Amino acid sequence: ALAAVERTFDGDGRTADGHRVELLANVGAPADAHAAAAAGAQGVGLFRTEFEFLDRDEAPGVDEQVAAYREVFAQFPGRKVVIRTLDAGADKPMPFLTADDEANPALGVRGLRTAATHPEVLEDQLTAIARAARAESALVWVMAPMVATVEETEEFVERCAAHGLTTAGVMVEVPSAALLADRILAHAAFASIGTNDLTQYAMAADRLLGSVAHLSDAWHPAVLRLVAETCRGGAAQGRPVGVCGEAAAVPALAVVLVGLGVSSLSMTPRALADVAAVLQATSLDECRRLAQLALGAQSAADARERVRAGLPVLGDLG
Ligand code: PEP
Ligand code: MG
Fold first, then answer.
1. What is the pTM of this model?
2. Ligand 1 atom with the shortest distance to the CA of 197
3. Any idea where the PEP-utilising enzyme C-terminal domain is (predicted)?
């Protein structure tokens, strides 16, 4: 087993047999980007932009957004930064954008859906992202949250292209998007699986509700099947599929995700070293074998147990 010592991360993600896995950081505010760079992250797989919009009466102006985005991009010169457009609604309510009278806000106008009711907010944000991207050398990828259909994907990709943002992708966090990933990825340049919401919607269990927390488990084989289907769609279209939900930060689950075909994992910077260490000790064939074991499980607990038992290298990182 891996020793319980302070592990450091050298920025490289590889399996034991040298298969490359991009290990990236999740960033929620410009200050996080400094910590991510200091932790050795080679890029950002999820830059959540909500921080700028929360607790305000109106959307921030373009100039203010440009300054915030540049601060993050500047930490990763020549590196990939995946910036997500605003994910308002549900667990991230924003009074100027989202209704407060929806019976089921998680199923309402949230994420990219707000672009239909408030197109100017997305327009301003894409303007700011494009301007910040031109001013810095980071490789800026843009993605939309809460995409459910092929049409939404096409429209988002077109809107990005109109701003000169040519690498536009989608988050896969709604089961419909996972099941239609092959068609969605005919238009989107990449997909990033948000396992927090994908689990919520696959299991019909509110991610914030303690009384259904036992159902909210990304280890559930139903969720893993959706991940596998998304990876199949990515492979069919030759497009990369990453994971940026919390599942990516769990070493044993990261192994399974890689075995299912995920090519990048984005996580809180402090998880990078442990995930890198477990991958480094596991071959790609082993990842695939463990992924099949997990897919064949009856329950989340069964999947977790099967993989832990088959991965003695985990030690204290279980
Ligand atoms: C997710 O849903 O997994 C995700 C990464 O997005 P958020 O947690 O911001 O909803
Ligand atoms: Mg989400």
1. 0.96
2. 2
3. 14-280
